[in-house]
Protein backbone atom coordinates (compact mmCIF):
# COMPACT_ATOMS: atom_id res chain seq x y z
CA UNK A 1 0.00 0.00 0.00
CA UNK A 2 2.74 2.34 0.92
CA UNK A 3 4.62 1.41 -2.19
CA UNK A 4 1.70 2.34 -4.47
CA UNK A 5 1.34 5.75 -2.87
CA UNK A 6 4.98 6.45 -3.25
CA UNK A 7 4.91 5.61 -6.93
CA UNK A 8 1.98 7.98 -7.56
CA UNK A 9 3.79 10.80 -5.81
CA UNK A 10 6.85 10.33 -7.97
CA UNK A 11 4.78 10.46 -11.13
CA UNK A 12 3.18 13.75 -10.14
CA UNK A 13 6.56 15.35 -9.31
CA UNK A 14 7.97 14.29 -12.67
CA UNK A 15 5.05 15.76 -14.60
CA UNK A 16 5.39 19.11 -12.92
CA UNK A 17 9.11 19.20 -13.63
CA UNK A 18 8.54 18.56 -17.33
CA UNK A 19 5.98 21.40 -17.62
CA UNK A 20 8.41 23.86 -16.00
CA UNK A 21 11.17 22.82 -18.40
CA UNK A 22 8.93 23.37 -21.42
CA UNK A 23 7.85 26.80 -20.16
CA UNK A 24 11.32 28.05 -19.57
CA UNK A 25 12.42 27.08 -23.07
CA UNK A 26 9.55 29.02 -24.90
CA UNK A 27 10.29 32.44 -26.55
CA UNK A 28 7.22 34.89 -26.64
CA UNK A 29 6.58 36.66 -30.06
CA UNK A 30 4.56 39.86 -31.08
CA UNK A 31 0.72 39.85 -30.63
CA UNK A 32 -1.15 38.84 -33.76
CA UNK A 33 -3.65 41.06 -35.63
CA UNK A 34 -7.26 41.01 -34.29
CA UNK A 35 -9.41 38.41 -35.83
CA UNK A 36 -12.69 39.10 -37.78
CA UNK A 37 -15.77 39.71 -35.67
CA UNK A 38 -17.79 36.66 -35.11
CA UNK A 39 -21.35 36.21 -36.48
CA UNK A 40 -24.28 37.64 -34.52
CA UNK A 41 -25.75 35.23 -32.18
CA UNK A 42 -29.42 34.25 -32.24
CA UNK A 43 -31.82 36.76 -30.50
CA UNK A 44 -32.38 36.05 -26.93
CA UNK A 45 -35.85 35.36 -25.47
CA UNK A 46 -38.17 38.25 -24.47
CA UNK A 47 -37.53 39.48 -21.04
CA UNK A 48 -40.18 39.62 -18.31
CA UNK A 49 -42.63 42.58 -18.17
CA UNK A 50 -41.38 45.48 -16.17
CA UNK A 51 -43.16 47.09 -13.23
CA UNK A 52 -46.33 49.12 -14.18
CA UNK A 53 -45.56 52.83 -14.33
CA UNK A 54 -47.44 55.68 -12.64
CA UNK A 55 -50.65 57.16 -14.24
CA UNK A 56 -49.88 60.11 -16.52
CA UNK A 57 -51.50 63.57 -16.37
CA UNK A 58 -54.88 64.24 -18.06
CA UNK A 59 -54.43 65.50 -21.64
CA UNK A 60 -56.13 68.52 -23.25
CA UNK A 61 -59.76 68.06 -24.50
CA UNK A 62 -59.95 67.07 -28.14
CA UNK A 63 -62.15 68.86 -30.76
CA UNK A 64 -65.96 68.33 -30.58
CA UNK A 65 -67.04 65.31 -32.53
CA UNK A 66 -69.98 65.20 -35.00
CA UNK A 67 -73.54 65.04 -33.61
CA UNK A 68 -74.68 61.50 -33.12
CA UNK A 69 -77.92 59.96 -34.38
CA UNK A 70 -81.11 60.54 -32.39
CA UNK A 71 -81.62 57.70 -30.00
CA UNK A 72 -84.87 55.78 -29.64
CA UNK A 73 -87.69 57.28 -27.58
CA UNK A 74 -87.45 56.35 -23.97
CA UNK A 75 -90.27 54.81 -21.98
CA UNK A 76 -93.09 57.09 -20.81
CA UNK A 77 -92.42 58.58 -17.43
CA UNK A 78 -94.68 58.41 -14.45
CA UNK A 79 -97.54 60.89 -14.21
CA UNK A 80 -96.57 63.89 -12.17
CA UNK A 81 -98.44 65.32 -9.25
CA UNK A 82 -101.12 67.97 -9.73
CA UNK A 83 -99.81 71.51 -9.51
CA UNK A 84 -101.23 74.23 -7.35
CA UNK A 85 -104.45 75.84 -8.45
CA UNK A 86 -103.90 79.06 -10.36
CA UNK A 87 -105.36 82.44 -9.60
CA UNK A 88 -108.90 83.16 -10.66
CA UNK A 89 -109.04 84.82 -14.07
CA UNK A 90 -110.87 87.97 -14.94
CA UNK A 91 -114.52 87.74 -15.77
CA UNK A 92 -115.11 87.65 -19.52
CA UNK A 93 -117.74 89.49 -21.47
CA UNK A 94 -120.97 87.57 -21.69
CA UNK A 95 -122.40 87.03 -25.14
CA UNK A 96 -125.73 88.81 -25.08
CA UNK A 97 -128.39 87.43 -27.38
CA UNK A 98 -130.61 90.22 -28.64
CA UNK A 99 -134.33 89.58 -28.56
CA UNK A 100 -137.04 91.57 -30.28
CA UNK A 101 -140.55 90.49 -31.30
CA UNK A 102 -144.13 91.68 -31.21
CA UNK A 103 -147.56 90.64 -32.41
CA UNK A 104 -150.60 92.97 -32.14
CA UNK A 105 -154.11 93.25 -33.55
CA UNK A 106 -157.13 95.51 -34.03
CA UNK A 107 -160.21 95.49 -31.84
CA UNK A 108 -163.80 96.61 -32.47
CA UNK A 109 -162.75 100.07 -31.26
CA UNK A 110 -159.81 100.45 -33.67
CA UNK A 111 -161.15 98.72 -36.80
CA UNK A 112 -161.53 100.80 -40.01
CA UNK A 113 -158.51 103.01 -39.09
CA UNK A 114 -157.87 106.46 -40.50
CA UNK A 115 -155.83 106.75 -43.68
CA UNK A 116 -152.26 108.03 -44.17
CA UNK A 117 -151.27 107.56 -40.52
CA UNK A 118 -149.76 104.67 -38.51
CA UNK A 119 -152.46 102.14 -37.61
CA UNK A 120 -152.72 101.87 -33.82
CA UNK A 121 -153.06 98.15 -33.06
CA UNK A 122 -154.34 98.06 -29.49
CA UNK A 123 -154.75 94.32 -28.99
CA UNK A 124 -151.40 93.12 -27.55
CA UNK A 125 -150.74 89.48 -28.37
CA UNK A 126 -146.99 89.59 -27.62
CA UNK A 127 -144.80 92.60 -26.79
CA UNK A 128 -142.44 91.31 -24.10
CA UNK A 129 -139.60 93.69 -25.01
CA UNK A 130 -142.00 96.66 -25.46
CA UNK A 131 -140.43 97.52 -28.81
CA UNK A 132 -143.89 98.19 -30.26
CA UNK A 133 -145.70 101.28 -28.98
CA UNK A 134 -149.53 100.90 -29.08
CA UNK A 135 -149.89 104.64 -28.52
CA UNK A 136 -148.12 105.53 -31.76
CA UNK A 137 -148.53 102.30 -33.72
CA UNK A 138 -144.78 102.22 -34.46
CA UNK A 139 -142.12 99.53 -33.88
CA UNK A 140 -138.68 100.90 -32.88
CA UNK A 141 -135.49 98.88 -33.58
CA UNK A 142 -133.26 98.29 -30.54
CA UNK A 143 -130.67 95.96 -32.15
CA UNK A 144 -129.37 96.27 -35.68
CA UNK A 145 -130.11 93.27 -37.84
CA UNK A 146 -132.54 91.54 -40.17
CA UNK A 147 -136.24 91.63 -39.19
CA UNK A 148 -139.32 89.96 -40.63
CA UNK A 149 -142.66 91.83 -40.65
CA UNK A 150 -146.01 90.38 -41.65
CA UNK A 151 -149.68 91.44 -41.58
CA UNK A 152 -152.93 89.50 -41.99
CA UNK A 153 -156.09 91.49 -42.70
CA UNK A 154 -159.75 90.63 -42.52
CA UNK A 155 -161.39 92.70 -45.28
CA UNK A 156 -165.01 93.74 -44.73
CA UNK A 157 -167.40 96.49 -45.97
CA UNK A 158 -164.69 98.44 -47.82
CA UNK A 159 -161.70 97.90 -50.06
CA UNK A 160 -158.26 97.64 -48.49
CA UNK A 161 -155.00 99.23 -49.50
CA UNK A 162 -152.20 99.21 -46.94
CA UNK A 163 -148.48 99.95 -47.07
CA UNK A 164 -145.57 98.83 -44.88
CA UNK A 165 -143.49 101.91 -44.00
CA UNK A 166 -139.89 102.23 -42.77
CA UNK A 167 -138.85 105.65 -41.49
CA UNK A 168 -141.47 107.27 -43.76
CA UNK A 169 -140.46 105.30 -46.88
CA UNK A 170 -143.13 103.03 -48.36
CA UNK A 171 -141.70 99.51 -48.72
CA UNK A 172 -144.53 97.21 -49.94
CA UNK A 173 -148.22 97.70 -50.83
CA UNK A 174 -151.14 95.28 -50.49
CA UNK A 175 -154.57 95.85 -52.10
CA UNK A 176 -157.80 93.85 -51.85
CA UNK A 177 -161.25 94.70 -53.29
CA UNK A 178 -164.25 94.03 -51.08
CA UNK A 179 -166.91 91.80 -52.77
CA UNK A 180 -169.95 91.62 -50.45
CA UNK A 181 -168.41 89.12 -48.02
CA UNK A 182 -165.40 88.85 -45.76
CA UNK A 183 -162.09 88.43 -47.50
CA UNK A 184 -158.46 87.99 -46.44
CA UNK A 185 -155.36 89.95 -47.43
CA UNK A 186 -151.76 89.52 -46.29
CA UNK A 187 -148.22 90.71 -46.90
CA UNK A 188 -144.74 90.48 -45.44
CA UNK A 189 -141.11 91.42 -45.97
CA UNK A 190 -137.60 91.08 -44.50
CA UNK A 191 -135.99 94.44 -43.67
CA UNK A 192 -132.56 95.45 -42.44
CA UNK A 193 -132.88 97.90 -39.56
CA UNK A 194 -130.41 100.00 -37.64
CA UNK A 195 -130.92 101.02 -34.03
CA UNK A 196 -133.64 103.67 -33.84
CA UNK A 197 -135.31 102.83 -37.16
CA UNK A 198 -139.13 102.77 -37.05
CA UNK A 199 -141.57 100.54 -38.92
CA UNK A 200 -145.38 100.74 -39.10
CA UNK A 201 -148.42 99.85 -41.19
CA UNK A 202 -150.80 102.48 -42.58
CA UNK A 203 -153.82 102.83 -44.87
CA UNK A 204 -153.09 104.33 -48.29
CA UNK A 205 -155.60 105.75 -50.77
CA UNK A 206 -158.09 107.45 -48.45
CA UNK A 207 -161.14 106.32 -46.46
CA UNK A 208 -162.41 104.13 -49.32
CA UNK A 209 -159.48 101.72 -48.69
CA UNK A 210 -159.55 101.27 -44.89
CA UNK A 211 -161.69 98.13 -44.72
CA UNK A 212 -159.51 96.48 -42.03
CA UNK A 213 -162.01 94.65 -39.83
CA UNK A 214 -161.96 93.04 -36.38
CA UNK A 215 -164.51 91.64 -33.92
CA UNK A 216 -164.84 88.67 -31.57
CA UNK A 217 -164.54 86.20 -34.46
CA UNK A 218 -162.28 88.04 -36.94
CA UNK A 219 -158.82 89.50 -36.57
CA UNK A 220 -156.47 91.86 -38.33
CA UNK A 221 -152.88 91.50 -37.04
CA UNK A 222 -149.44 93.01 -37.47
CA UNK A 223 -146.28 91.12 -36.32
CA UNK A 224 -142.51 91.37 -36.51
CA UNK A 225 -139.38 89.78 -35.03
CA UNK A 226 -135.59 89.83 -35.20
CA UNK A 227 -134.09 87.09 -37.37
CA UNK A 228 -130.40 87.77 -36.59
CA UNK A 229 -128.24 90.69 -35.56
CA UNK A 230 -125.95 92.37 -38.09
TrEMBL record:
Major place of residence: secreted
Keyword Transmembrane helix: no
Compartmental location: Secreted, Extracellular space, Extracellular matrix
Stretches for region Disordered: 28-92
Sequence ranges assigned to domain C1q in this UniProt record: 95-230
Transmembrane intervals: none
InterPro entries, sorted: C1q_dom, Collagen, Collagen/C1q_domain, Tumour_necrosis_fac-like_dom
Keyword Chloroplast: no
Biased composition (Basic and acidic residues): 45-57, 78-92
Signal peptide: 1-17
A GO CC annotation given for this chain: collagen trimer
Domain of life of the source: Eukaryota
SUPFAM superfamilies documented for this protein: TNF-like (SSF49842)
Keywords: Collagen, Extracellular matrix, Secreted, Signal
The protein's name: C1q and TNF related 9
Protein source organism: Scophthalmus maximus (Turbot)
